[in-house]
Design goal:
single chain; alpha/beta; Rossmann fold; 7-stranded mixed sheet; SAM-dependent_MTases_sf; Methyltransferase family protein
């Protein structure tokens, strides 16, 4: 994902995810908070979670509530969120999409959904070590996965979800997962 998009405001494609959130939403891997800010602007209770202190500071500067936490550790409101947001390919956090979806399930109430952005069809499932950086500075290596809609269906099924809808906008692919 182009890092510059992280710092922009939510765009028309992002609105697919934002508009699908009709209740309290937790954004896992919120980055600098463009989606948390867009949710708050809509009057949706939202919380960003990220393991980067810089990302949390940027989210808060946009008016979004955010916590510097490991998303696999205890989080506020477990079992009570209406939506878990995994934008910008964050379904890949930790390198195991099914494990991340099982974690997301523990955050949701019984009718809660996961809103996710995946790679275009044809990517399959790819797992690699990755890191974020630029010309002069690189972060630590971490496990990451990339998956397309077909691989998402498999990961979702193994975590107790099914795909409710899948849509493409501006070359980006989004899905909503409901608990099965």
């Amino acid at each position: 994902m182009p890092i510059t998009r992280w710092h922009d405001d939510a765009d028309d494609a992002d609105r697919i995810l934002v508009d699908a959130c009709g209740g309290p939403t937790i954004d896992l891997g919120c980055g600098p908070g463009r989606l948390v800010a867009a949710l708050v602007e809509r009057g949706i209770v939202a919380l960003g979670v990220d393991n980067s202190e810089v990302a949390i500071s940027l989210t808060q500067s946009r008016g979004g509530p955010a916590l510097h936490r490991d998303l696999f550790k205890q989080l506020p409101g477990e079992g009570r969120w209406s939506h878990v947001l995994l934008a910008d390919g964050n379904i890949g956090i930790g390198g195991d999409p099914a494990a991340l979806l099982r974690r997301a399930r523990t955050l949701l109430h019984a009718r809660g959904t996961v809103l996710v952005e995946v790679e275009p069809p044809g990517c399959g499932l790819r797992r690699e070590r990755a890191r974020v950086g630029g010309e002069d500075s690189w972060g630590s290596w971490f496990d990451w996965a990339w998956l397309d809609p077909e691989a998402l269906q498999e990961a979702a099924g193994s975590a107790g979800f099914r795909v409710r809808w899948l849509v493409e906008r501006s070359g980006r692919w989004f899905a909503e997962l409901e608990q099965s």
